[in-house]
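User: tokens in, sequence out, please.
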């Protein structure tokens, strides 16, 4: 079971760092950081009166049920041009693509194509 509420409590009530939270709960620091990022992006505020199941649904919404052929494709010419610039990575370009196209493809598909 996910320890979302405990991560949030330790961050907002106790003021612990992500690494200290992860160490105290026996989870990875990337998981604890991911929960905090998802909470910030959700627009919820702490303390949260939602149930655990409701909180999890808010932070981990189901994937959109859009068929592959209806998902928007990235501009591959732009992607290849941007990759030539120093410091630009596929991960950064995929994040920009998903911000502009929320119904778009996931990172693994983006990297494969």
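Assistant: Sequence out:
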């Amino acid at each position: 079971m996910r320890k979302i509420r405990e991560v949030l409590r330790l961050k907002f009530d106790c003021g612990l760092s992500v690494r200290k939270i992860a160490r105290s709960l026996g989870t990875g620091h990337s998981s604890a950081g991911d929960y905090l990022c998802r909470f910030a992006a959700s627009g919820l505020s702490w303390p949260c009166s939602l149930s655990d199941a409701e909180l999890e649904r808010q932070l981990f919404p189901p994937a959109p049920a859009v068929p592959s052929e209806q998902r928007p494709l990235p501009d591959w010419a732009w992607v290849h041009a941007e990759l030539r610039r120093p410091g630009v990575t596929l991960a950064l370009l995929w994040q920009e693509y998903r911000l502009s196209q929320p119904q778009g493809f996931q990172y693994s598909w983006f990297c494969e194509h």
